[in-house]
Amino acid sequence: MRDPSPPLRPLWLAILALVAALSAQSARAGCGCEKPPPPPAAVRPAVTWPGQDVTFFHADLEAGASYRVRFVSGVGPPSAKELTATAVARRDLADGVVRPQLVVPLPELPLGPARIEVHAANGPRLLDVPDHAFTVAPPPLPILTHVDRYVFDEVRGAVGRDGVVYLSLDFSEVQQARVFRAQALGYPLRFSHEDVAFWNVQGFLMQLLGEDMPGLYTISSGLTTHSDVLQYSRHEFHTHLLAHAERGSHALDPEDPNWHLDATRHIDHDHQILAIDARLLSLLPPPAGSTPPFDLVVETFTLFEHGLFADEGAEVSGTAAIDSFDSATSLPGENGDVRSNGSVFVDTGASVAGDVAAESASILGTVTGTVSQGVAPLELLPVDVPAAAQDLGSLDVGNDDTVVLAPGSYRVDELIVGSDGHLVVDNAAGPVTLYVTEKVDVQSTLGIETAAADPERFAVYVAEGADVKISNEATFHGVVYAPGAEVEVSGSGELFGAFVGRNVKVTGDALVHYDENLQATRERSSVGAGIQAELSLPKVRAGRRTGKLKLSVRSSRGAAVPLLVSIDGVATDVPMQWKRRSKRWAYRGEFEADLSGRELTVRGTDGSLVSLTLR
């Protein structure tokens, strides 16, 4: 982290160092409710939003006694709110010791630093929390699990007295492993991985980006007027859901929801605060208070952006074929992309209906899309096996055996399905997730039967060092994530989903159909002449991009200047509609003509212009 300025910035460093020292390993993603406890403090958390609980600790507090709590904003015109509450005796999250504590909801206050006073009901002041020790954050932004691109308009973050920027996030709808990419448009923050941390509303440190975990994050430089771009990967959402909903091992204590009935701490994974110790273009920290308004763009991805992904090498041989389909419509497509951090080999007779991207590629067979070499490598998030998963030992489905897996998450040493074995995945009512520690060997002519076509409803996560072999003549709907394992798919079966491995080989007559719903399809224009365009394009099918096109445009002139859209050869100066609620211009069209390679232009009646080529 950069040299602190103003002098209060060492507080940020001291807090991070203290919490990280308590348990460096416990802060890893994927650990569910295993996090280092928050350090002892007079107030906890140090940052939250109105309506959330704020807890105070002091040696002179007495359970059952009444107290007055006064919050005083540290920015703008004088603003203060006072509340009355009664102290209670509860376990402290810091050390588990029962002690008096005072809990009040944070009232509505201006964003930024706030001073807090705690007084006895009719007595002296017991506690005075300076405004550099507490910050009022904005209400949380809802982060969704659906793969898409979201734009939050006119967002304002909070800035603490030490210049740290805070954004509140609500992850309660996210229950699958996801990758998020975010950027603030119009707010040029500059930061490194050492400047970023995630806290929750209880004061737990949820994640430090400085941790040694491949695939956890990337940070890339933004344009002059925008922030740097943060990409962050997490599969901890599913671990938390598993521990609390599936197994019931962490049921909440009804008397104190900060604890479980099994006497372990409850950690709120749904309500978090992103803290960025950033600098502006002037190299100075942002001023305390509220940030200027900006548009926050959040893109959500799965761990399966390609039909095949290999960390070292991918091979498609024999008469094997990789293509794509849409599980929502059952329509075929040509988005079965193959990517590798090392090499890709497509042998004579094999085919890829999609793109190939790798450090090096040898193509003897058919590739319908583009072939790119020398591409930058992508880091993969490692697999952590959650302790709360039900342990099935070795799952061996022998010949003539039928085994049914109900919705849930399971730890499996070995997954073996014999040639006449039949594994039924009953995932219609909920997902089935397997964490395999040793090997996967599926040789069944009946294969693995799934009740639901959504591939994420049957996910197989494979620990490093294990091997995956799937050789069958039946169908399979699911995803396999094995970044440290050898993955081999053979036989003459059809597999619907995606595969990730250290090395991935698809051979024989196997057909792999990548589910396009695992991948976002939105594309953006550059920003120019005061117009920012966002596209949702139809998918490529049978080599042609046809179907519905959606266009959303934000203009610096707002509704004052009407916009017209043109698409080379198929639409000319079609008026766009102004959407008053979202303050954007919108256009929707359905095209039978192939849109690939055509120029799309948005023109304002004042002469402003932005254009892009549809890929």
How would you describe what is shown here?
The protein is mostly beta strands and 615 residues long. It folds into 4 domains: 13-33 and 138-301, no CATH class; 43-136, Sandwich (Immunoglobulin-like), CATH 2.60.40; 332-518, no CATH class; 522-613, Sandwich (Immunoglobulin-like). It has 2 helices and 57 strands. The radius of gyration is 27 Å and the shape is globular. The two termini are 40 Å apart. Residues 1-32 and 522-529 have low confidence and may be disordered.
Q: What's the shape? A: globular
Structural class determined from secondary elements: mainly beta
Main pleated-sheet profile: 19 strands, mixed
Give the tally of β-strands: 57
Q: Please indicate the percent range of residues in DSSP E strands (runs of 2 or more).
A: over 45%
Number of helices: 2
pLDDT average, as an integer?
84
Q: Please give the alpha-carbon distance between the first and last residues.
A: 40 Å
How many distinct domains? 4
Query: Which regions are unreliable across 5 or more consecutive residues at pLDDT < 50?
Result: 1-32, 522-529
Q: Radius of gyration from the CA trace?
A: 27 Å
Helix-residue proportion: under 10%
Summarize the entry for a quick read.
By secondary structure, the protein is mainly beta.
